[in-house]
């Protein structure tokens, strides 16, 4: 003769096959957290509006911020097939509410827990903007023409090209513009951005690019640091 035993929750007495450490799902989740969240505040640059996401600066969106918060969720148990869902609701311009849900399998039983926490956008200055404020520059673009009118026209084209480039690299924006005889000198924080724009200008004006460099740091065993000058002369 075989005896059958019904499974039940040791806390509430509910008959159920879905038990976790002897407790039904409801009783277990009342006494145990599936996850915790620590420091979900996000740095945002007051100058350019980019946010620090996984150590890099990028323009934020709800999806990007939600993914960043999701990456900061710490699971407290060996949950199989875990899924994390994040819903963001603005409270003020810098304060937000995050509804975070974690679900998965724990000891073969489906579990789901939701918590709500608040976070804020912490105003800071990103590395690029700090460099721009300090007149940091890696390159100079020299524009020259036969007269002031043509030089001014070249300047407007160059500023637009740099603006387009700065959407990807903030340091590509001109830090300072100096007017010279029949031309302009633009200080650029990013040599990479300056190189791209200088090449586009040469192609546009069908002229040769003259490149020079000056050492500004390093040497004697350390990697040399150079500032590049790109000269574009419209004939």
Keywords:
five-stranded mixed sheet; alpha+beta; 15 strands; 2 domains; 5 helices; 235 residues
Kindly report the spatial arrangement of strands forming the biggest sheet.
12-13-11-15-14
Shape: rod-shaped
Q: Roughly what is the average pLDDT, rounded to an integer?
A: 88
> For the CA atoms, what is the radius of gyration?
29 Å
Q: How many domains comprise the coordinates?
A: 2
The number of helical elements comes to 5
Please mark out the parts with pLDDT under 50 across 5 or more consecutive residues, or reply none.
none
Termini distance? 106 Å
Pattern of helices and strands: EEHEEEEHEEEEHEHEEHEE
Please identify the structural class as seen in this structure.
alpha+beta
Total beta-strand segments: 15
Specify the helix fraction band: 10-25%
Largest sheet: 5 strands, mixed
Beta-strand content = 35-45%
């Amino acid at each position: 003769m075989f005896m059958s035993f019904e499974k039940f929750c040791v806390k509430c007495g509910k008959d159920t096959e879905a038990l976790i450490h002897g407790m039904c799902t409801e009783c277990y989740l009342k006494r145990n957290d599936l996850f915790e969240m620590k420091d979900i505040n996000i740095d945002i640059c007051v100058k350019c509006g980019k946010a620090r996401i996984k150590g890099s600066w990028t323009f934020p969106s709800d999806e990007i911020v939600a993914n960043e918060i999701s990456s900061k969720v710490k699971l407290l148990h060996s949950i199989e097939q875990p899924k994390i869902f994040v819903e963001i609701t603005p409270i003020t311009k810098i304060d937000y509410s995050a509804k975070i849900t974690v679900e998965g399998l724990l000891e073969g039983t489906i579990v789901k827990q939701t918590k709500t926490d608040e976070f804020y956008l912490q105003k800071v200055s990103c590395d690029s903007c700090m460099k721009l404020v300090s007149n940091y520059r890696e390159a100079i673009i020299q524009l020259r023409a036969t007269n002031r009118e043509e030089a001014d026209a070249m300047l407007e084209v160059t500023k637009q090209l740099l603006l387009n480039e700065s959407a990807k690299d903030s340091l590509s924006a001109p830090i300072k513009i100096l007017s010279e005889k029949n031309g302009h000198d633009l200080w650029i924080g990013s040599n990479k951005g300056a190189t791209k724009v200088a090449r586009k200008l040469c192609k546009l004006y069908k002229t040769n690019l003259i490149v020079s460099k000056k050492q500004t740091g390093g040497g004697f065993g350390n990697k040399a640091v150079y500032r590049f000058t790109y000269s574009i002369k419209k004939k």
